[in-house]
Design a protein that fits this description.
Layout (H helix, E strand, L loop, with lengths): L4 E7 L7 H14 L4 E7 L11 H4 L3 E2 L5 E2 L2 H9 L8 E3 H14 L9 H17 L6 E6 L9 H14 L4 E8 L2 E2 L4 E2 L2 H12 L6 E6 L5 H11 L6 E5 L7 H8 L1 H8 L11 H11 L3 E9 L9 H13 L2 E9 L8 H5 L4 E4 L8 H13 L4 E4 L1 H13 L7 E2 L9 E5 L14 E9 L4 H6 L3 E8 L1 E3 L4 H6 L2 E6 L6 E6 L5 E4 L14 H11 L1
Parallel strand pairs: 1-6, 1-7, 2-5, 2-6, 7-10, 10-11, 12-13, 12-14, 14-15, 15-23, 16-17
Antiparallel strand pairs: 3-4, 8-9, 17-20, 18-19, 18-21, 21-22, 22-23
Bound molecules: glutamine (GLN).
Glutamine binds next to strand 19.
């Protein structure tokens, strides 16, 4: 295999410029030129992973097939590239320090003083190069979290500087993303923040190779030329990234601007072929020209921050395109649903999704939403806690198990229809200890799930501690709630369906993590289809 090339994406001026989307878009373009690409995220926080973070802090926690709890940007990477990421794609300062400190305790540093440079930077570089040494990729794209100038991202920036020197300037480039604000008072786009941000990067010893300028309004050539001149970057390597209506449009905009061309040239990559984005274009075409429209309610307790449900929302985008259907999402706060207002809050919805979650806040509203969907024959998808709520609801109102509950909510319940998994009982630490990542599930033929997947064996990603209590399996089965998906090793119930209902499924796993633009998740596709009829 030819030499692996490294692309680093840094951000300046402000956070939230969409570095993840720009990284994913660039990677998509390089992939469409026939290179094999992966994207890694380096996050400067001290948490080992975002698994212990409240979604209000950091949005959704995304889970990889091999069980890493990661930043939601990894979801974008998979949704754009259609290639799974892994533990190695997600690095945090916490992980770096943990490794270095463990080595120090073992005596691996042979009496040396352990310091940020070289020990922390060496560990960072090792994690970056590890992906390159896997022999699977031509290009490793590494997104550096945070903004240039932050104290906490300094060791990462210094590692990039060293890598550029060690690996050679043609093998290692930096794409810097900044903001060009538009001042409506004067009607001008201003380049000064970008100039300052590049200066800040230069102070750390890094000359960016490519600049991507986020802007509300299209920029004229004069502005781009000015940025090129003052930031020491070739003119064709100054790319504008103007606001678009959907993130899936960004690769096309970057293509028009020649971002891929500039990167291929800087890396001296042999040109394989021109970008082939025919499937991507077909997806966009369907997305932008829907033939019908439906309204789906997402019932959850973090609805004030839609980033907490990022993968679910994107799964609806993919499934909507697959069904040529526009999906309007109505966010419903589960704490605002009660016995007397359920019908008025949920009326008019074509489908109801009850979201995953932890703890008791808002749980009764989720249970009421599941009841409403069951009784009114409204398509329903319950994910993880959402599935558990559907089970609790069925136990209480159909099986007449008064006070049935999950032991997560009420550990004294007489009917623990959802109970803690045996192997979880001895767990003490909260970080990284759930049942995480891909597990098999065998699906019953004739079920809606089988119809959707078209196969009896699937692997789906998980993130939970509680499970369906198999002690009650027969009660549920006899009354019409069918366990149609089971883990073959443990017997754990993975999917439940309601017989005689239009479309009602609860899944213990997270289908949303594996839906991509070109590979929409079968369950979401089937759920949306049911919402349209
Ligand atoms: N709190 C539930 C459990 O741990 C559900 C988790 C989830 O929705 N991800 O089993």
């Amino acid at each position: 295999m030819a030499e692996v090339k490294y692309v680093f994406v840094t951000g300046g001026v402000t956070s939230s410029l969409g570095k993840g989307i720009v990284s994913a878009s660039l990677a998509k373009l390089l992939q469409s030129r026939g290179y094999s690409v992966t994207i890694q995220k380096l996050d400067p926080y001290i948490n080992i992973d975002p698994g212990t973070l409240n979604p209000y802090e950091h949005g959704e926690c995304y889970v990889t097939l091999d069980g890493a709890e990661t930043d939601l940007d990894l979801g974008h990477y998979e949704r754009f590239l259609n290639v799974p990421t892994s533990q190695a794609n997600s690095v945090t300062t916490g992980k770096i320090y943990q490794t270095v400190i463990n080595k120090e305790r073992k005596g691996d540093y042979l009496g040396k003083t352990v310091q940020v440079i070289p020990h922390i930077t060496d560990e960072i570089k090792k994690r970056i190069k590890q992906l390159g040494q896997s022999n699977k990729f031509d290009i490793i794209l590494t997104e550096i979290g945070g903004t240039v100038g932050d104290i906490e991202s300094l060791p990462y920036i210094e590692s990039v500087r060293q890598l550029k020197w060690e690996l050679g300037y043609q093998n290692c480039i930096v794409v810097h993303l900044t903001l060009v604000p538009f001042l409506s008072a004067t009607g001008e786009s201003k380049t000064k923040p970008t100039q300052h941000s590049v200066k800040e990067l230069l102070e750390t010893g890094i000359q960016p190779d490519v600049l991507v300028l986020r802007t509300e309004k299209p920029l004229n050539t004069d502005i781009k030329r000015k940025v090129a001149l003052f930031c020491n970057v070739e003119e064709n390597a100054v790319i504008e990234s103007v606001d678009v209506s959907t993130i899936y449009e960004v690769p096309m905009k970057m293509l028009e601007q020649g971002l891929d061309k500039a990167v291929v040239k800087k890396l001296a990559l042999p040109v394989k072929h021109e970008p082939d984005l025919s499937e991507w274009r077909a997806f966009l075409d369907k997305l932008k020209n829907p033939k019908h429209s439906v309204t789906v309610g997402i019932v959850g307790k973090y609805v004030e921050l839609p980033d907490a449900y990022k993968s679910i929302i994107e799964s609806f985008v993919h499934a909507g395109a697959a069904n040529e259907c526009e999906i309007e999402i109505k966010y419903i706060h589960s704490e605002e649903i009660n016995e007397s207002n359920t019908a008025s809050v949920l009326q008019g919805l074509n489908g109801i999704l009850v979201a995953p979650g932890f703890g008791s806040r808002g749980i009764e509203g989720k249970i009421l939403a599941a009841r409403y969907a069951r009784e009114n024959n409204i398509p329903f998808l319950g994910i993880c806690l959402g599935m558990q709520c559907a089970v609790i609801e069925f136990a209480r109102n159909v099986l007449n198990f008064e006070g049935a509950d999950s032991t997560e909510i009420n550990h004294k319940t007489k009917y623990p229809v959802i109970d803690i998994m045996e192997e979880q009982k001895s767990v003490i630490n909260s970080g990284g200890t759930m049942r995480l990542g891909g597990y098999k599930c065998i699906i019953t033929k004739g079920s809606k799930a089988y119809e959707a997947y078209g196969t009896t064996e699937i692997v789906e990603r998980h993130r939970h501690r509680y499970e369906f209590n198999n002690k009650y399996l027969d009660d549920f089965r006899r009354h019409g709630m069918d366990p149609v998906g089971i883990n073959p090793e443990s017997g754990l119930v993975e999917i439940i369906e309601l017989t005689g209902h239009k479309w009602f499924a609860g899944v213990q796993f997270h289908p949303e993590y594996s839906s991509t633009a070109l590979n929409p998740h079968p369950l979401f596709v089937s759920f949306v289809k049911a919402c349209t009829v």
